[in-house]
Design goal:
alpha+beta, Copper chaperone, Alpha-Beta Plaits, HMA_dom_sf, HMA_dom, metal-binding, metal ion binding
């Protein structure tokens, strides 16, 4: 299953790294691709991946997130 999130507040590659690391720390995440230009994160994981947990992780890292 792939979940796409709209990420706000990113302005540089450091932001991309922070968001990527926050999402990767969520159990069940298999891979993450963060696109700075589009402000989107694509997250691959099992079918039971919890979008709310992904959003909470991004918010805890200091960025905004919502389902795309």
């Amino acid at each position: 299953m792939t979940i796409e999130l709209k990420i706000s507040g990113m302005s540089c590659q450091h932001c991309v790294k922070a968001v990527t690391e926050a999402i990767q720390a969520v159990p069940g995440v298999e891979s993450v691709e963060v696109d700075l230009a589009r402000g989107v994160a694509r997250v691959a994981g099992p079918a039971d991946a919890d979008a709310n947990a992904l959003i909470a992780a991004v918010i805890a890292a200091g960025y905004g997130a919502e389902p795309a």
